Amino acid sequence: MSIQNHKLRQSRRTLAFFWALLLIVVFFSSFLGRMDVSPQVIATTLINLPTTAADLVAGNYENLSESERVLLLIRFPRILLALLVGCGLSVSGAVYQGLFRNPLVSPDILGVAAGCTFGATLGLLLPGSDFTLVRICSFIAGLAAVSLALTMAKVVHSSQTVVLVLTGIISGSLFHAFFMILKTVADPYNQLPAIVFWVMGSLSGTSWVDTLQLLPIILGGYACFHLFRFRLNILSLGDSQAKTLGVNPKGLRLFLISVSSLMIAVCVASCGQVSWVGLVIPHIVRTIIGPDHRMLVPCSALLGATFLLLADDIARSAFSSELPLGVITSLVGAPIFAWLLYHNKNRGWT
Q: Which CATH number do you get for residue 170?
């Protein structure tokens, strides 16, 4: 019992550390930008946010200073969107790895990223294209890719997770082929640059509308994972033991996969493909606190949000022109993942 209490206290200290790290990075990110904003202005803007919310909704910006406009209309929405996307991708990755009992599973294993990429490209090529149309097309195509993978697995009449992974690969390859066709026929001067930049990921041009559209889905998905965190531990033991303990592994796995895919679809539709977040962050957290989903889920959410916000800070401030977000996450995530593989070479899945 004392060992369990010690592990619980250690996990809580780790969770508190992740919270502190997140708040520090959020505060630091508020300063980054071409306009210098003092800490006093940031504090005053946050304190007055309840009173200025009505002006923001009504589109009345005359009463806001220039610094307040930069914070409220540019930096704060972008910071919040980075936190939501990082949280959604990391938590979905942790859940996928637990469901498939495979540490190499990433959130796009069922083809959702390829579907979203195809949908966004289609939206960019349609007449009268705008950001809203691109995100709607991306979201619909992402869900279509997952639905195709699940339907093929059902047709095969197999409940094995390896079959679901294979159908996900088929679906992802199919939608990737569709994407390559659209990329080939796109105008190389007016359309292709926007497609390439979107595929590499970016949070530029974020507004409160984009952030608030994502907020309920990410929070709702996280709430589902939090409620089923004990059953996630049971599913990680295998289907036989899960049935013995009174859990329906097939139904619960399908439900959790659907929720995860929905979260990933809205994240990719909001900012494009951001690689490595859903693969590396759960590995880091699992190395620190272990495989218990009771702490793995919240810690992955916090660290994933912090990681993506830091990556976005680097992307928008390292050079005069903004770098694609996916480039930063790949440059940072790939070496970290290589180190984790070496560090955990003698350890099993748990």
A: 1.10.3470.10
